[in-house]
Every structure is written in structure tokens, then in C-alpha cells.
Write a structure and sequence with these properties.
Keywords (chain B): ATP synthesis, Cell membrane, CF(0), Coiled coil, Hydrogen ion transport, Ion transport, Membrane, Transmembrane, Transmembrane helix, Transport
Largest interface: A-B, 48 and 33 residues
Number of domains of chain A: 2
InterPro entries (chain B): ATP_synth_B-like_membr_sf (IPR028987), ATP_synth_b/b'su_bac/chlpt (IPR002146), ATP_synth_F0_bsu_bac (IPR005864), ATP_synthase_B_chain (IPR050059)
Oligomer: heterodimer
Shape of chain A: globular
Strand content of chain A: 5-15%
Number of domains of chain B: 1
Order of helices and strands of chain B: HHH
Main location (chain B): membrane
Radius of gyration of chain A: 24 Å
GO cellular component, one term (chain B): proton-transporting ATP synthase complex
Membrane topology (chain B): Single-pass membrane protein
Distance between the termini of chain A: 39 Å
Distance between the termini of chain B: 202 Å
Chain lengths: 378, 166
């Protein structure tokens, strides 16, 4: 009975999220013709392939303002600006409204800043951007610590997580079984503990639960948030996944016991020449594991967003009564898959982190020649 | 690859690092630790409860067996007691009957003795009375017979007639 309830609540959450998502897609379809196109280049219709591609590219990137949608015809943006914090010979903080969605330069303390492809560059008074050989601007970039859309999303998600899990924690003070939303969260917490941490890390799992649970829910909530019409793409940002993977990397290296290091630098049970050959491979493996974590999450989430938005873009490009519903159906289908991917990627990231930690803390009490469990990177 | 590097936002990385570390530390202290502790203690509680339930069940079984045994014993005892009581009753009844018989016999015997005695006494009395009556009658008869001198002489003569000298 209790299980039924949990399933029902989960289902309800899915349906709500999903309906919001499809609503957003409807919305975007409606506004498809006159949604913003690369806000920094001024408003315009999104009709052609290139415009759609640019729009998708723009969506995938972080942003210095929080736009819900824009009216291409009038050039109006509906949203709110976010604070820009720069470190450029001193701390400079101002509102991103100074950029007027990239249409004007921001002049702070006599220095001109230009917002170009959601990056802030130092320019001269005319706002000239010089390009290098690779096609990217060579202008100097100030250190940008702005509270961007992604940072805001991260902060809000952190706050949300803190509130709901603090609530869950305090609900245990009064009774043994949580009620309401806690019934959804508790199985997930137990799942992370029993199916991710315990089997992969072993008896020392308790020490790493904080990291694993935090990362799991952080990625999961941000993934799900990415499916909402807010257009947030935090986990599809390489800087974010890099940071998460780096955390795993450090935790693994600092938890490594002497067996772990011995396996890397002086593999036991193989002839000496092999030991020498294996050493650089193992050192490389140390780095490729978190690298794979970083790329996997980034690529999966980015790909999901690209596919969903491309399908929506196809509706705009074709603009007829057959393609519209057909691609809408496709989008719906892909959105459901994305929902699965949101859970799957959070799970995989946590699982592999746990696996790597497990490999580092494992006690090698067994026969020294038995290395059947030294699984290489995936 | 260049695009990735160009897109890499150090600011975002910086904030993510801070958010992640702070979030992990805060959640660990205020959420994960109490949650996991509660879950553990609840699971321990459930395990204990199951164990004690199992023990209670076993105890119950033992108790049941004991009860059965006791019941059987009690039943056997009851049967034995009933049997004994029945036997006792029969014995008592028998004894009482026998005693009553003997007493009755004794009473009858006594009564017979007394009746005999009374009868004897009555007989003696009767005999005495008959004798007295007979003597009185004889006296009267004799007196009658010897009332006159002639009669006395006559008697003497008769007697004398019987007496023959041998």
C-alpha cells in the first residue's frame, strides 16, 4: 500500500513536470516565429536553419540575464537581469541590464565591456571584437564571477535541497516514517545508500554518503529542471560537470589506500617490464575516469537539449500541418526519454563515483595474483 | 574542442565549487547525518522487532506445548480422581450397606432374645398362676370333700382299702 502511494506520487511528479515541459514546447511553438534570436545581435525571427541552430546554441549557453521569452517583433525581453561581478583590476559589480541584452556596451569605471555570445569581453569604445585564427574573439576577458542564470539555478536548487532534506531529517524526529513528499525522497535516499554506496564502496560507505547523496540529488534536480520551460541547462555545462568530476577525482585520490597507489605505480603480480609499461597507463586511467564522468554527463544533457530543441526547430522550419504535429509527437517522445535520461545520468554519475571510491578504499586481503576485479575505466 | 574550451566559464566553475562544497557540508550536518541515522535506527528497530517477534512466537509455541502437556496431565489427573471417587463411593455404599445389614441383624437378634425372655417370663408367670389356681381349686375341692366327718372317714377308709398289708 505504501509502495503504491510512493509510486503514485512519483508518477504525479512526472506528469506535472512533463506537462509543464510540453506546455513550454507549445509555448515556444506559438512564439516560434518571433522568439529572440541571439539577443546580443538584437531581436529577429527564428525561421531558417541557421537561426534555429543559433537559437539552440544560445539556449545551451549560460546567460547573464534570466529571460523567459522575448518578443522578436518589438525586441522586448521578458525576464530579469542578473548581477554581473567582474574581477578586472578590482572588483566590479553591476547589473546585466547595463548590456541591454547585448545590444549596448557597458561602461564601468571608464572600461568598455561587451557581451558577445554570453561572454564578457573588454573592448574599445566602439565595441570592436577581433577574431583569432580559430574564429574566436581574442579580446581580453575579465574574470567573470557573475551570478549567471546557471549560478542562480544552482543556488536555488541548493536552497531547495537544503529545505526539503532538512525537512525530511526533522520529520524523523517525531515519527519513524516520513509523510507527504518525504515518501518520495526516502526511497531515493535508501536507493543511493543500498544500491549505489554499499555494494560499490563496502563497509566504509558511510563516510562518502554525504558526497554521493548531495551529488545525486543535485544532478537529478538540475537535470529535471533542465526539462522545464525555464530553459536552464546547468548539468549540460562543461564547467559544472568538470567541477563535479573534479570533486570525485579528489575524493578518490584522498581516499586511496596503499593498495590503490601500489596498483597505479607498481602493479603487483606482473613482470617488471610490464610494471613499467603499466605505470603511465594507470596514471592516465586515474585521470580518464573523472574525465569520462565529466564528458558523459555534459554530453548526455547537452545532446538531450539539442535533440528536443532541434525537433521543435523543425516545426518552425517546415511550418505545415503535417510536420507540426509529427515533430511535436517526436518531441513528446524524446522528452519522455529525456526524463529517463535525467534519472539515469544522476544515477550513473553517482554509481561510477561510488565505484571509483570503492576501488580506492578496497582492502586487498585476497590472493595477490587475483586481479579479476581490477576493472578498467569505462 | 576549441568551442568547449572557449565556452568554459571559470566563474561558473568557481561558483559550482563553492556551492558544491558548502552544500555537501551543510547537508551532511543538517540532513544526511540525521536522515541516515534515523534510517539506520529504524532498520535496527525493525530487525529487533522481527527478532523479538520470532522469539515471542517460539516462546508462544513452547508455552503452547507446555499448556498442552499441563492440560493433558490435568485431564489424566481429573480422570484418575474421578475414578477414585467412583471407587470410593462404591466402597462407601457397600460398607454402609453391610453395616446397616449387620446392625439390622443385631437389632433383630436382640429383639428375638428379648421376645424370648419376655415369653419365658410370661410362661413362668402363667405357670405360677396356673399352679396357684390349681392349688386353690384343689384346696377348695379338698375342703369340700373333707367338709364332713363322714367324708373324712370315708376317705380314710378308701385309703385304707388301698393300703393292703403285705
Amino acid at each position: 500500500m505504501k509502495k503504491d502511494n510512493t509510486v503514485r506520487i512519483l508518477l504525479a511528479v512526472f506528469i506535472v513536470l512533463f506537462s509543464v515541459n510540453t506546455f513550454a514546447q507549445d509555448h515556444e511553438v506559438e512564439h516560434g516565429e518571433n522568439t529572440e534570436l541571439e539577443s546580443h545581435e538584437g531581436p529577429g525571427a527564428v525561421d531558417t536553419k541557421e537561426e534555429v541552430a543559433d537559437y539552440i546554441d544560445h539556449h545551451l549557453q549560460d546567460s547573464h540575464s534570466f529571460n523567459f521569452f522575448s518578443d522578436g517583433a518589438t525586441g522586448e525581453h521578458y525576464g530579469f537581469p542578473l548581477p554581473v561581478i567582474l574581477w578586472d583590476n578590482g572588483l566590479k559589480a553591476f547589473s546585466s541590464s547595463e548590456f541591454h541584452h547585448g545590444e549596448t556596451l557597458a561602461i564601468i569605471d571608464g572600461q568598455h565591456y561587451k557581451l558577445y555570445h554570453n561572454k564578457i569581453y573588454k573592448t574599445n569604445a566602439e565595441g570592436t571584437i577581433t577574431y583569432g585564427e580559430d574564429g574566436y574573439p581574442t579580446n581580453a576577458k575579465p574574470l567573470d564571477f557573475s551570478i549567471t542564470k546557471n549560478v542562480l539555478a544552482m543556488l536555488l536548487v541548493s536552497l531547495l535541497m537544503f529545505i526539503i532534506f532538512k525537512g525530511l531529517a526533522s520529520s524523523y524526529k517525531n515519527k519513524d516514517i516520513p509523510s507527504g513528499f518525504g515518501r518520495v525522497l526516502e526511497p531515493l535516499v535508501i536507493y543511493v545508500r543500498d544500491d549505489i554506496a554499499k555494494p560499490n564502496i563496502g563497509p566504509k560507505y558511510r563516510k562518502y554518503m554525504g558526497f554521493l547523496l548531495t551529488v545525486f540529488f543535485f544532478i537529478l534536480i538540475l537535470n529535471l529542471l533542465g526539462l522545464t520551460p525555464l530553459g536552464i541547462n546547468v548539468t549540460g555545462n562543461i564547467a559544472v560537470t568538470f567541477c563535479l568530476a573534479l570533486a570525485t577525482f579528489f575524493i578518490v585520490q584522498f581516499s586511496g589506500n596503499k593498495h590503490y597507489w601500489k596498483h597505479i605505480f607498481w602493479m603487483p603480480g606482473v613482470p617488471i617490464p610490464m610494471k613499467i609499461v603499466l605505470m603511465p597507463i594507470e596514471i592516465l586511467g586515474m585521470l580518464t575516469k573523472p574525465f569520462a564522468l565529466m564528458i558523459r554527463l555534459f554530453a548526455n544533457m547537452t545532446a538531450g537539449h539539442v535533440v528536443v530543441m532541434s525537433l521543435l526547430g523543425l516545426i518552425v522550419i517546415f511550418q505545415n500541418w503535417i510536420a507540426g504535429p509529427a515533430f511535436f509527437g517526436f518531441t513528446l517522445f524524446i522528452s519522455i526519454i529525456e526524463l529517463l535520461v535525467a534519472f539515469l545520468q544522476a544515477y550513473i554519475f553517482t554509481l561510477l563515483s561510488a565505484l571509483y571510491i570503492g576501488m580506492a578504499v578496497e582492502d586487498h586481503d585476497h590472493h595477490p595474483n587475483d586481479h579479476s576485479d581490477d576493472i578498467p575505466v569505462i | 574542442m576549441e568551442k568547449l574550451i572557449n565556452d568554459f566559464s571559470f566563474g561558473l566553475f568557481f561558483w559550482q565549487a563553492i556551492v558544491l562544497v558548502v552544500l555537501i557540508l551543510l547537508l551532511r550536518k543538517f540532513a544526511w547525518k540525521p536522515i541516515l541515522d534515523s534510517l539506520n535506527s529504524r532498520e535496527e528497530g525493525i530487525k529487533d522487532a522481527l527478532l523479538s517477534a520470532e522469539n515471542a512466537r517460539k516462546e508462544m509455541q513452547n508455552l503452547h506445548a507446555d499448556n498442552e502437556k499441563l492440560l493433558n496431565e490435568a485431564r489424566a489427573q481429573r480422570d484418575a480422581m474421578l475414578k477414585e471417587a467412583r471407587e470410593l463411593k462404591e466402597k462407601v455404599v457397600l460398607e454402609a450397606t453391610e453395616e446397616a445389614q449387620t446392625k439390622a441383624d443385631k437389632i433383630v437378634a436382640n429383639a428375638q432374645v428379648i421376645i424370648q425372655n419376655e415369653k419365658n417370663a410370661a410362661m413362668v408367670d402363667l405357670k405360677n398362676q396356673v399352679a396357684t389356681l390349681s392349688i386353690e381349686i384343689a384346696e377348695k375341692v379338698i375342703r369340700e370333700q373333707l367338709s364332713t366327718t363322714e367324708k373324712q372317714h370315708k376317705l380314710v377308709e378308701d385309703m385304707l382299702a388301698d393300703v393292703t398289708l403285705k
